[in-house]
């Protein structure tokens, strides 16, 4: 058991080191291409963070467990938002204590929040309206909504740089 615990801690350490290095490389690439960090987070970082979930959810759905895949689609991002963001904010506020941590406002955060709210509330309404069934058009709508979100974010990034 101690060896398993040490192996787990070392795995977390190496994942943290590699993630930090990849983030630094991404930040350097963004600086070279003069891209705002918010845009990099909305695209490259979000895609890299979500590819594993996408593959797992599609595989689970193809294996005949669509309810499990749907639960994973919502539970994974919820865990990231609540636990990941909560932990990061606790650490950051501890670093600046006794002052409050000041979040720098960017319009892309508001745009992301609006699109997230549209997708989640729309999913709640459509899935409830269709009696816990997901119609095909809703999948196409959500993909279109994401493409619209990326387009709006790119336009905002272009004019706020």
Automatic annotation (TrEMBL):
Keywords: Antiport, Ion transport, Membrane, Potassium, Potassium transport, Signal, Sodium, Sodium transport, Transmembrane, Transmembrane helix, Transport
Pfam name, any one: Na_Ca_ex
Transmembrane segments: 35-56, 68-91, 103-130, 137-157
Cleavable signal peptide: 1-19
Organism, scientific name: Camellia sinensis var. sinensis
Main location: membrane
GO cellular component: membrane
Origin: domain of life: Eukaryota
GO biological process: one example: potassium ion transport
GO MF term (any one): antiporter activity
Coiled-coil regions listed: none
Protein family membership: Belongs to the Ca(2+):cation antiporter (CaCA) (TC 2.A.19) family. Cation/calcium exchanger (CCX) subfamily.
InterPro entries with a match to the protein in the record: CaCA_antiporter, NaCa_Exmemb, NCX_ion-bd_dom_sf
Protein name: Sodium/calcium exchanger membrane region domain-containing protein
């Amino acid at each position: 058991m101690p060896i398993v615990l040490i192996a787990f801690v070392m795995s977390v350490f190496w994942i943290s080191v590699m993630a930090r290095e990849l983030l630094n490389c991404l930040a350097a690439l963004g600086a070279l291409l003069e891209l705002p960090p918010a845009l990099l987070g909305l695209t490259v970082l979000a895609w890299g963070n979500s590819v594993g979930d996408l593959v797992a959810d599609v595989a689970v759905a193809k294996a005949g467990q669509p309810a499990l895949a749907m639960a994973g689609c919502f539970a994974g991002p919820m865990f990231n938002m609540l636990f990941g963001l909560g932990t990061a904010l606790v650490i950051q506020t501890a670093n600046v204590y006794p002052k409050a941590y000041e979040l720098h406002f960017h319009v892309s955060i508001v745009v992301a929040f609006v699109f997230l709210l549209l997708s989640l509330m729309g999913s709640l309404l459509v899935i409830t309206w269709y009696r816990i069934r997901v119609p095909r058009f809703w999948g196409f709508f959500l993909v279109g909504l994401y493409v619209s979100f990326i387009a709006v974010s790119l336009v905002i990034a272009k004019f706020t740089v």
